[in-house]
Amino acid sequence: MKRLLSLGLFLVTMLVFSAGAHAYTLTWVPESKDYAVGETVSGWTVLEYKDAVAYNSNGVWTTSGSPGGDTRPNGATIMWFYYGGNYAETTLSTKSTAVAFMVESDSNDMYVNFYVDGNCVLANYDMMTLPGQISYPDWQVGTLVVSGLDYGTHTIKIQSVDTNSYRDDFHLYGGAAVAPVPLPAAVWLLGPGLLGILGIRRKMNK
After folding, report:
1. Local structure of 7: helix, strand or coil
2. Is 82 exposed, middle or buried (0-12, 13-18, 19+ CB in 10 A)?
3. Where are the domains of the chain?
4. What is the pTM of this model?
5. Model confidence over 58-83: pLDDT tens digits?
6. What is the CATH number of domain 23-205?
7. What CA–CA distance (Å, rounded) separates 162 from 172?
């Protein structure tokens, strides 16, 4: 009986570990630009940033197709791709448990797939539904944060999907290794403090 119980506990542990390894979380942030290390993207701190057009000078991005480039009013550079199957891919050298894609869309952008370490984390995403807006009347921006990854270096990739819907490109600012912004010490102490107060009240009520 003890052996069966031990075996059962082992199998449950393995299932939880296996599920946890793929239990990443997707978070959309309504902003996107070229980021410097140490800047924050909503609740995330940038540990390393790779500009989407940096491949022109140092080869940090692997690309498929013939990407174009542009500069936005905020000084950010951007890369765009045409036709289904075109992609941009890069490996971040800073270890982290979360990565981010900084993207932009105009009025006719494609559906795209997002990959982390070769695994598709979001398929057929409609780039025209990005959550944020910039100065152009029909342009949206967004940062997709993929968290809950194993601690290490990660490869990120964004690829266009051919839908025959007359959409012709997708836009990319860059990618980053990110970490959650740490909560202030006072917030961390708040939880234990409340528990302590509850404990005292319980003792007084006995």
Report:
1. helix
2. middle
3. 23-205
4. 0.78
5. 667 899 988 888 887 777 889 999 88
6. 2.60.120.260
7. 17
